[in-house]
Amino acid sequence: MKSLITKVSAVVFLGAALASCDTMASEKEAMYEVTITNISHGEFFTPIMVASHKKGVKLYELGAPASSELEIMAESGNTAPLTASLIATGKTLDVAQATGALPPGQSVSLKVKMDEDHDYISVTSMLVPSNDAFFAVNGMRVGKAKRGITVYSPAYDAGSEINDELCVSIPGPGFVCSGEGTNTESGEGFVHVSPGIQGIADLDAAKFDWRNPAAKITIVRVKK
Question: Given a cut of 90, is residue 153 above it in pLDDT?
Answer without folding.
Answer: yes
